[in-house]
Amino acid sequence: MPENQEPAALSERDPMFEREKEKYERPIVSREYILQYLEEAGQPLTLDDFFAELEIGEEDQEALRRRLRAMERDGQLVRNRRGAYGIIEAMELIRGSVSAHPDGFGFLIPEAGGKDLFLSPREMRKVFHGDIILGRAVGEDRRGRIEGTVVRILERALKQIVGRYFADGGNHYVVPEDRRIPHEFGVVEGGELAPVHGQIVTLDITQYPDGRNMPQGSVVEILGEHMAPGMEVEIAVRNYGLPYQWSQAVLDEAARFSEVVPEDMKEGRRDLRDLPLVTIDGADAKDFDDAVFAEEIVGGFRLIVAIADVASYVQSGSALDKEAVARGNSVYFPRRVIPMLPEILSNGLCSLNPHVDRLCMLCEMEMNAAGEVQRFRFARGVMRSQRRFTYDEVAAILEGDEALRTQDAALVPHLEALHRLYQSFAGARERRGTIEFDSQETRIIYNDQLRIEKIVAVTRNVAHRIIEECMLAANVCAAQYFRIHDLPMLYRVHPEPSADKLEDLRRFLGELGVPLRLPERPRSADLAKIIEETRDRSDSSLIQTVILRSLSQAFYTVDTGMHFGLAFPAYTHFTSPIRRYPDLVVHRGIQALLDAGTQEPRWLAKKELQELGQHCSMTERRADEASREAVNWLKCEFMMDKIGETFTGIITGVTGFGLFVALREVYVEGLIHISTLGEDYFHFDAQHYRIIGDRSKETFQLGDAIEIRVMNVNLDDRKIDFERAVPEGQATGGKARRPRRSRKESS
């Protein structure tokens, strides 16, 4: 007991005693009081110290022992070598997550913020990417990085790995496909499955690495041959831990639905079935979240955006809802989708398919002639889509395609009204100062063997832009709705660029001679003006790339904040509840407010929403990374028979080790290593995004065109190596690199 503290009953000392009394028949000392007591004690305490100083009777000692161990597992306490418990901060320990690099090193990312700790390859032998650990700073390395050591692993991120199975005599092991895992896994023999050398398998981890011993696992799934069609998706799904199987509870709940809306669910809703609402999507779309209708009224336009009413089917807390939270969003791969909701809902009952009744949430807006929303309201509705249009069909109709205009004569006036409304929106967008980059989307075309035949550019037409503007308008109205009614909600926030990035951008633009100046806190309109004013310059792609890289990443949060890129003071996601969980939360919030006149709205606390926003931001990034990995695999596979061929490309990245180049003809990116640029010493100029030759002064800069030759393709590492294509006799040669093998196989 701390000096000068008189003994007192636990009920008097522990501020959380009443809470513990409600939870337990025999209340024990709370976590809060344990932390407070340790802080007052000023030193770590053993179990016996706690028993004696807190006067814990023998009958309660086991309960306290379990509580201390739980606090240790949760990272609230740490136990030293003599078994004494101490406060993490007082012992100079840092709790955080491990971020691994494919080259073997990694970083400890502190949960409380602050500088990352560099973890050497030796330290990384103890942990996996994503593990929650306690670490300690131990000094600086030669590059000035704060170096850390792993003190304790609190939570393992991985329970399974996916990798390539090798059988080398009596040795059986798996090399992970995730290059951030620098371990080979010994295979525990005796399982029912018998993989063949070279196959891709899933391994349940039975023994984790400790820096000395090899991790181990048992084979629980044989995915197939390494180069089998679709293997890239199977690997990405497991590498990134994407939930892809439905539990029996989810299947049971989904089985209760049919594709027909029950009549009783249509009651009390606004009937829109006679309104010519239509969906406009891509030709390969399977689910239809949104339908639109517009007409001209006195002084402007009336727009209705109708969104599938998923919230009426997926109840909060249900098995379907819990699974949707875990997934966070649908994940789109080439040729495959991992949906957030089962198909009976995502492609059936919640999809606004043509000529069938569907429940919807509608946002009705009135705009003036300048495209500014004057009034809006939300309501529950029942609708019937009159037509499923593709973007190309709508664009053709607006361009005067007589056959389509005759076929859809009744709908053409409404499409033309949508087009005129879009033109008003476009004017408002320009006045607002929305940032627009000249980006290029691509689509993969497959042959009969499910291999890539070609990669083609996707051109956005006017129909894409019409739908985009309608959705933006509805999302902004939803954000305003919650601000008006002061209901906590998840917002989509895109912060303004950091001061450091803005300073770098100012310096860069000044050296390029861009006459426009950025104010101390620029608006999106300031950056949009620079993009527009420099669009005809030869270095416009360089300028746009540097501006893009100065921007922050968007995320979900409960705090209202601006969307810098779109130039909205508040923004949320309302229009895609089939494939994004935050949109489903927004729908529930709107329905709570619609019901507020008849019942007290029950809603989530800010803390719950904030945690949900962090989770959904994570699942969004996870989906993007998994999709990118699968596409990179396919692009590598596509380029394997093109080694030695030459292409024209654009430099999209400049680093200390070389140039990243995107090929114009095939839309694939690869690396030219700095050592293959030519007969000169080349140096990286980070400030100007370029590499310069020492003797020749030859310069390679972001946005420059360059001729390349394909040197190597490494499918396992998802990497393509280029060399600079120079006249005969000067080229540096190269040959195809074989897929990576394990060290045992190489020896």
UniProtKB/TrEMBL annotation:
Signal peptide: none annotated. Keywords: Cytoplasm, Exonuclease, Hydrolase, Nuclease, RNA-binding. PROSITE patterns: RIBONUCLEASE_II (PS01175), S1 (PS50126). Residues 644-725 form the S1 motif domain. Its main location: cytoplasm. It catalyses: Exonucleolytic cleavage in the 3'- to 5'-direction to yield nucleoside 5'-phosphates. CDD domains: S1_RNase_R. Residues 735-747 have a biased composition (Basic residues). It comes from the Bacteria. SUPFAM superfamilies: Nucleic acid-binding proteins. 3'-5' exoribonuclease that releases 5'-nucleoside monophosphates and is involved in maturation of structured RNAs. The keyword Cytoplasm applies. This is Ribonuclease R. Residues 11-21 have a biased composition (Basic and acidic residues). It comes from Acidithiobacillus sulfurivorans. Gene3D superfamilies: Nucleic acid-binding proteins. The lineage of its organism: Bacteria, Pseudomonadati, Pseudomonadota, Acidithiobacillia, Acidithiobacillales. Belongs to the RNR ribonuclease family. RNase R subfamily. Residues 1-21, 726-747 are annotated as: Disordered. InterPro entries: CSD, CSD2, NA-bd_OB-fold, RNase_B_OB_dom, RNase_II/R, RNase_II/R_CS, RNase_II/RNase_R, RNase_R. Its EC number is 3.1.13.1. It is found in: Cytoplasm.
